[in-house]
Amino acid sequence: MKIAQIAPLAESCPPRFYGGTERIVSHLTEELVRQGHEVTLFASGDTRTSAELVRCSDIALRLNPAVRDHVPYHVAMLDRVRALADRFDVLHFHIDILHFPLIRDFADRTVTTLHGRLDLPDLKPFYAAFADIPLVSISDDQRRPMPPVNWVGTVHHGLPRDLLPFNDRPKGGYLAFLGRISPEKRPDLAIAIAARTGLPLKIAAKIDKVDEAYWSEQIAPMVAATPNVTYLGEIGDAEKAEFLGNAAALLFPIDWPEPFGLVMIEAMACGTPVIAMRRGSVPEVIEHGVSGFIVDDVDQAVAAVGRLGLIHRSAVRAAFERRFTVERMAEDYVEIYRTLPGVKARSPLLYVAGGEPGLQVVA
After folding, report:
1. What are this entry's molecular-function GO terms (predicted)?
2. CA dist., res. 134 & res. 264, Å (int)
3. How far apart are CA 286 and CA 331, in angstroms?
């Protein structure tokens, strides 16, 4: 198939640091190319890909200090997408809502994966107005707040099997918190769990500008007052294998309707069990007693730390390989592409890509 992937421009594909959506778009794109599809990726100019790249900004917008507003860059990107739309059998959007008014006349060969939370009140009238646009959720729980819309599937995220190596002999003996410092991620609960268990806690997380006050007023004082807690800052992919692989467990004490939680399957790929609050997608991702423990409060999380010896790291890795590989994710999406009515009417389903894929750039 001739497939367009349209990524957010906040981060490159893959991102240098934090960036779950762009990371998934990158993995999906590379796997689709590997499977023989002709893929064009609309993304930032510092993206690394074996697909054809349409550069829509010089670098990732978050890394450009001159950028104040991301919207104009995305609107310009969508103008290019629309100009090139007839080249593709399927256009797969990962940028939330900006493109909806522009794809009305070819929506039947598009799919939009919703990567964020959908419980915000302003979203309901929007999605009700565009109820025909084909949508994909990244967990079944993510759908709960939505009005009736055109869901065409749920596709859980997946990762390359060799991205994060399995570690059967972790050396750290610490608990890990990885992701973002924000009230909904509840790093304060991770600190409370560590304080009660006595195990070291290492926090590797970015701090967005909107959360700087939360960090300085609430979390930084807790870190300073808890001797067994260390804040490491934001880490990249190269450091994740050691950080997650050597942890006794990943703490995921969220307090919001998490749409998926990529860090959970990153930990699972390393064989590291996950202790997670029963929120959002968690019961869909974690198999209680197999890949970790699902808990309802801090007391249960502390008890779960004491039961980590019951979890076999090989079983955690096996759960990852059974459910969360990039091959499975790509196959799920291709099956959805094939069901889109515009794809069936427009062209044959499959194209055979000739030769070895290499980096191509459309200026």
Report:
1. glycosyltransferase activity
2. 27
3. 22
3-state SS, 82-132, equals: HHHHHHCCEEEECCCCCCHHHCHHHHHHEEEEECCCCCCCCHHHHHHHCCC
pLDDT at 20: 87
The top-level CATH class assigned to 2-158+325-362 is alpha beta
Residues 6+ apart with CB under 8 A from 320: 159, 265, 268, 269, 291
pTM value is 0.91
pLDDT by residue (tens digit) across 239-262? 999 999 999 999 999 999 999 999
Provide the pLDDT for residue 361. 46
Domain residue limits, the chain: 2-158+325-362, 174-322
Sorted by sequence, the CB contacts under 8 Å of residue 123 that are 6+ apart come out as 97, 145, 146
State how far the Cα of 17 lies from the Cα of 23, in Å rounded to an integer.
10
One fold for both 2-158+325-362 and 174-322? yes
Phi–psi pair at 301, nearest 5 degrees: -65, -40
Report the CATH architecture of 174-322: 3-Layer(aba) Sandwich (3.40)
Beta 110-114 vs 90-93: how paired, if at all? parallel
* Nearest residue to 9 (alpha-carbon basis) of 41, 40, 50, 37: 41
Q: What is the mean pLDDT of residues 167-174?
A: 93
The tens digit of pLDDT for each residue in 51-95 reads 999 999 999 998 899 999 999 999 999 999 999 999 999 999 999
